[in-house]
């Protein structure tokens, strides 16, 4: 059902449309109504009262899908956090409305006082945040350990159902869950990837989606941040879709990557599912999209077609890294600089003494030049250590 009009304060849709909706529910025996629009608490309540079935908006639907897909403790905690934060925003109004009469989605809240209910939610939020903080600290330690061992990291990103997990399995010979349903992967998984005598760490991440609510990005930040700390992002795009859908989903992914603060990381666009297209269709789509995609590469994760080309690209990008080491005296301006270096470079070793810090690292030449200049400003010592030494 569609309607073009200004949102109605009571129902979101007009009163006449509500009557149509009531009849549609009765005729079809529907048990749930889903709105693509965001619903205010009062609108949700009034629609449930009129139709006598549960009503949810797009945000609640995404939460429901996430809830069904969550298998790890971290993913379940993140979904609980997003659910409770959403509940907290609407708690006072929901309690007030439920005191009049209970409707689907508002059951049992009439026994609460608004402040007591809000305090109970806040307490649960704090408990979950503490648990997630411990998981995040463990993840940071794992990342630091990998950096000490000198591994460069690659993250798979992309729209949900683009084929990231299939590509992950093809590259690592693993058996990550693959499914046509949305959000099969809700937690990251990292495996060793080795080719041409080099070892890399490949991470499969959560799929993006159009208009992903900001609170969900925040709730999944500890999972999504694996993208931020990658040395290279492989953006997986489903080529077996109409051109306008491909372009739209690619833009959504790039916007989400920028939102995460990872837009400066080297990126290759893996145009997946070419096994579903004829060679002519592949050529035509690539020609139509090449100016709108970053470093496009045709492949099929399912048939393992052109994976060698992808590996060559990875080597071209990551082999350009230069190695160096520097020491800077500990002063008031050093720690923000060290934090920035951690975000931009691959740290192999870091040692603090009473009056200085010594770091061994790898980074892109442009980033390394910025580090070199800052070290000089901080009265430190800088030295390239790779064969591609800078003059």
Written account of the structure:
By secondary structure, the chain is an alpha/beta fold. Helices cover 47% and strands 18% of the residues. It has 13 helices and twelve strands. It has helices at 15-28, 41-51, 58-69, 73-98, 114-148, 164-172, 214-219, 221-228, 243-259, 279-289, 307-318, 334-344, 365-377; strands at residues 32-35, 54-57, 152-158, 189-195, 198-204, 232-238, 267-272, 296-298, 322-329, 346-352, 356-363, 381-384. The strands form three sheets. It has a six-stranded mixed sheet, with helices on both faces. Strands 10-11-9-12 form a four-stranded antiparallel sheet. α3 packs antiparallel against α4 and α4 packs antiparallel against α5. It is globular. Residues 182-186 and 387-391 have low confidence and may be disordered.
**Which strands sit side by side, in order, in the main sheet?**
4-5-3-6-7-8
Percent of sequence in beta strands: 15-25%
Q: What shape does the CA trace take?
A: globular
What is the H-and-E element order? HEHEHHHEHEEHHEHEHEHEHEEHE
Catalogue the unreliable spans.
182-186, 387-391
Distance between the termini: 66 Å
CA gyration radius, whole angstroms: 25 Å
* Count of separate DSSP helical elements: 13
Report on the biggest sheet: 6 strands, mixed
The overall average pLDDT, rounded, is 83
> How helix-rich are the residues, as a percent range?
40-55%
Structural class: alpha/beta
How many strands appear in the DSSP assignment? Answer: 12
